User: Fold F173A methyltransferase from Sula dactylatra.
Amino acid sequence: WAALLMPGFRRVPLRLQVPYQPSGPRQVANALALLRGRSGKTVDLGSGDGRLVVEAYKHGLRPAVGYELNPWLLCLSNYRAWKAGYHGKVSFLKKDLWKVNLSDCYNVIVFLAPSVKPPLAAKLLAELPDEARVVAGRFPFPSWTPTSTLGQGLEQVWAYDMKKVRRAVQSSAEG
Assistant:
């Protein structure tokens, strides 16, 4: 029915879809607490309705960018940014996270399904600078040891500093 209401609407291929589950206020606060005091480009991979990107900008993380494939969620994200007074200050881009170069990103937020984490871990290891921090919500990266965690249950978030992650991956490969 969306194709009837919106000319030019295209479905996102099923293999690329991750279920949309909005982050709660405590999850957002916990994720941003683990990024407190940091600077540099901040991205949210699979940014959903944009709330994490808007809050990141509000907390001084700039530039703040969300990558999302769902056109409905991109519209909602842009509305959220406009309502917060950040239209034109934050960016929401319709880009496939697997095709985006992350080499200039220093803060990466990932609230994605567990099935995506192993291949995403390889991409992040290959592209992110040593100074980067990855914050995962809902599900940790299964093969990485977090630098820190915050919250309990569904509100828990995990922070990974790429330099430490790389060191651990190298030592386990050598051992």
Summary: The longest strand covers residues 133-137. The two ends are 55 Å apart (CA to CA). Confidence is low (pLDDT under 50) at residues 1-16.
